[in-house]
Amino acid sequence: MTVLKRALLSLGLLTLLLPRVSAGDWLGDKYSLFIHYGLYSTYGGVYDGVPVRDGYSEQIFSFGVHYMDIYEASARDFTAERFDADSIAALAKRAGMRSVVLTAKHHEGFCLWETATTDFSAARAPRCGRDLVREMAEACRRAGLRFGLYFSLIDWHFPGAVPYSSHNADPVTPAHHEYNKRQVRELLTKYGPVDELWFDMGSLTPDQSRELYRLVKSLQPKCMVSGRLGNDCADFAVFPDNETPDYAMDIPWQTAASFFPETWGYRSWQRRGSVEEKVREKLSDLLRVVCGGGKYLLNIGPDGEGGVVPFERLVLERMGAWLRVYGEAVYGTDGLSAQGPLLTCRADGRAVYLFVPDDRTLVELPALTSLPLTAAALDGEAGVELVSVGGRPAVRCTPLAGVPYRAVCLTFAEPVSLQPQSETIFAYSLADYYSGLRSVVGYRVVGKGLREISFPREYEGREVEMNGEIVTLRGRSSGATSPEVRLVGALTCRSVGGQLGRMPSDDGVIPQPVEGTMLGDSLLGSPDQHRGVLYEQELTCDQSGDLRVDLSYRGGFLLYLDGEYIDGGFVREGAETIPLLLSLKPGRHRLQLKLYNGFGSRPYARLMPIERYELQRMLLPPSDIVTLKRPHRFPIASPAHLSALRIR
């Protein structure tokens, strides 16, 4: 009998065997259940007998029904008769999840709790009359699970909201903002501890985001706030739906994933496919998130009566069976590497866990600070050994039938980490769902005898975190000169869609020459909201050096030099100017600047080259590694705009 079959026979013992983490360790839980359930579930993705194929099924009002009087009347048939909170909590535990996040209210405005703010709720639905939020909160407490809530910041039912749109980034009127505050206050005062408040959608002003964040913390200081509250008022970053970053993150983060990319809410006509393939897919996603240092929030969409779809139940139970055997390598660990071999490590650094897929028998380890002493699979089965490949340590691992990944524990005599290398340090900054970007928050430089930091005079007096300590940038002033550059060819531009943080791939659109130059002239973004303009310009120089450029901008921007990301950011109100240093070598270079209209006002940018400028030089104790980044202060994800720093 394989280890997986033995695990399936004893699913009921899963929760007794999982390692425990501290009550406050939100990130250490690693794996949570998301539940999308609401009035939309009763439609099952069908309106007037026809499948609605546009958009997610939980947004069927926007994409199918369109008329609120018709949609509101359908609440008469909402029963939730198969919504069993204790059964769902038990499923989450069998699945190896540590918390549950329930959609208290989605964009449709239908509330799953007893609220004094509206009659459009499960509690007032004539055939339901239940407070489903209370039922789920109490079931989670009985099961020893943490409880979180999803809350939509847009509400298509509230009469004081702006006319709705299908892009889900509508502004929030003052009346709507006050309505949201009243509902958030109810949710955080009636149902006990709330582990996380998963705000979603809308395009709030910075003041609105800050006010809601302060409200949450005043009512429940330990409640984690999701990045989709907007304007970087958050405790953890959330990426676009079903996305996982391909870069290391310096702040807590979470990937929210649906079973199928087409929908989160129940879709009766969804093609579900093979249970085994879906288990492999979602387990792979979970491990990629955990090894990258994040937390995985996997969604189910109960049917119209609240019952869990059998396909989703079975997939979760199979994943739970795997976690019963290998959970030590998941819960309470630190992500070590999601690029290449999948690795986590214990907090003490003396144990590293390697996840070996069943299509591999040999995995070379990345460069670590010390060599492993032993290697053993957590399933207790044989077929694992340490070997050497070209002088580098590797693990040979025999696959087990029916097991997508085996977790191998590597032990070390001393705390171990990846060999340090020079790299950019990232977070994920979010104004609203469409206006998010990979934000540069710092740098790590590795070299022999590093002893000096230089920076523009504008940085003087800024506080930064340097090798774990807060320091103030102060230095001696000296002059510097930019290398002479010549522009080559015409400035070109093209309109691009997507989100702020995405650089367009080759979509076949030919860039068109435009008047002006990349350096010195004002460049305009699109007048249309949620659209971008990509400018490109080639330049050349005869000598190496740092070209000083002052970037003034409004809206959102991304700047690339020779395909390398330099900086990015957004300003919702007013404008901002930041100094940049572009490192050039003799030869041709390509500048790319994307301007994005996320907030209505037409964006613009101007890259003004500065021939002579001042640099401040600050001496450091000699070191071979210098890590310098913005301090971990609220807002934790905003770009540091420190790209003009040089460490030598």
Class derived from helix and strand content: alpha+beta
The largest beta-sheet arranges its strands as: 7-6-5-4-1-10-9-8
Biggest sheet statistics:
8 strands, parallel
Mean pLDDT over the full residue set: 92
Low-confidence stretches: 1-24
Number of helices: 10
Cα end-to-end separation: 59 Å
Number of strands: 33
Q: If you had to describe this structure to a student in words, what would you say it looks like?
A:
Helix 5 (85-94) crosses helix 6 (132-143) and helix 7 runs parallel beside helix 8. The termini are far apart. Strand 12 (342-345) and strand 13 (351-357) form a beta hairpin. The protein has 648 residues and is of the alpha+beta class. The protein has 10 helices and 33 strands. The model is unreliable at 1-24 (pLDDT under 50). 47% of the residues are buried. It has an 8-stranded parallel beta sheet with strand order 7-6-5-4-1-10-9-8.
Descriptive terms for the model:
single chain, 10 helices, 648 residues, disordered N terminus, globular, alpha+beta, 8-stranded parallel β-sheet, 8-stranded antiparallel β-sheet, 17% helix
